[in-house]
Specification:
With 286 residues, the chain is of the alpha+beta class. Helices cover 35% and strands 27% of the residues. It has three domains: 47 residues, Uridine Diphospho-n-acetylenolpyruvylglucosamine Reductase, domain 2; 111 residues, 2-Layer Sandwich (Uridine Diphospho-n-acetylenolpyruvylglucosamine Reductase, domain 3); 112 residues, Enolase-like, domain 1 (2-Layer Sandwich), CATH 3.30.390. The chain has twelve helices and 14 strands. It binds flavin-adenine dinucleotide (FAD).
């Protein structure tokens, strides 16, 4: 297996083009190294994309733009996520307990893995777009369209994720993230993110509820029934419980980590937790 570490995008695209389907890009390598023999046995060339200048967070044109090789720790420590409508991204990272992984894993790597990861669930709730680059140019896909199934995404040979963009939510929006894992060092068994904008009278004007890690689809999903249960209503504990109950009805995966029945219960708890946090942040504006 050859290892390359290009310093500009053109060079990276040329390397990926030269090896075609037998090359892969890597960023933090936290997933790649753990699954090297099992999933990447036939890879001939690894193109490390960490030196391409894709590590940044900036607010531009009403969007939070996060470069693909920005580490989770970089997101957590940014001033842009310290408070306000984007703090949910720091809050999401804070739920990952392993410092070494936070320091190495990147947002691009998280996005490319549809499965037991946290950030795609939050990005789905926040209507994020994924910017994809290749020698042919760039294209943009919504987070919703990017994932195709468990460990499967819409990237074609030679393409890499270069940026993640999140539209700035309106003022009065609060976000909450809830998660269950078996141990502090394990992958998530269930996670949930809620984005909620409250009107002056405490009515939920806009609600997005996403659930990840638990789904039978293998990708994070938006739970329309739970969103509908809350939208346009004054939020109180009974309404939150109703929405959480609706979220628990999603089709959950059954595997060695947890049964579908248990996951379904935890989806309810994670959504309730995330919703309570979202309401609290929306009320205080932080
Ligand atoms: C013990 C452990 C616990 C963990 N717990 C959690 C957790 O609780 N929550 C959580 O969210 N994450 C967790 N993670 C991290 C998560 O499982 C992945 O390892 C991480 O998201 C991968 O990011 P990376 O940058 O290291 O990707 P890499 O390992 O570099 O790459 C992963 C895959 O994505 C592709 N890829 C990477 N970047 C790009 C790009 N820009 N464009 C195209 N393809 C790309 C690679 O080809 C590869 O297929 C944990 C990891 C470990 C090892």
């Amino acid at each position: 297996m050859e290892y390359y570490s290009p310093t500009d995008l053109k060079e990276a695209y040329a390397l990926l083009g030269r090896y075609g389907a037998s090359a892969i890009p890597v960023a933090g390598s936290t997933f790649f190294m753990g699954h090297r023999e099992e999933l990447f046995d036939e890879v001939e060339a690894v193109v490390d994309i960490k030196r391409l200048g894709l590590s940044y967070l900036r607010l531009e044109g009403g969007r939070l733009k996060i470069g693909a090789t920005t580490t989770l720790a970089g997101i957590q420590k940014s001033e842009l996520t310290a408070r306000g409508v984007f703090r949910i991204f720091a809050d999401t990272v804070s739920e990952l307990n392993i410092k070494e992984v936070r320091n190495m894993a990147t947002i691009g790597g998280e996005v490319c893995i549809a499965g037991e990861v946290d950030m795609p669930t939050t990005l789905l709730a926040y209507d994020a777009d994924i910017v994809i680059g290749s020698s042919k140019g760039t294209r943009v896909l919504s987070m919703q369209k990017f994932h195709r199934g468990y460990l499967n995404n819409a990237l074609e040979t030679g393409e890499i994720v270069i940026e993640v963009q999140v539209p700035q939510p309106r003022n009065g929006t609060g976000g909450g993230f809830g998660k269950f894992e078996r141990t502090a060092a394990d992958l998530p068994i269930v996670n949930a993110c809620v984005r909620m904008a409250l009107g002056k009278n405490g009515v939920a004007d806009e609600v997005a509820i996403a659930v990840g890690a638990a789904t039978a689809a293998g990708v994070p999903v938006r739970v329309a029934a739970a969103e509908k249960a809350v939208t346009g209503k004054k939020v109180d504990d009974a309404l939150i419980a109703e929405a959480a109950e609706a979220a628990g009805a999603i089709d959950c995966v059954d595997d060695f980590r947890a049964s579908a029945r248990l996951r379904s219960r935890w989806v309810r708890c994670a959504v309730e937790d995330a919703m309570k946090k979202a309401v609290a942040h929306a009320r205080t504006g932080d």
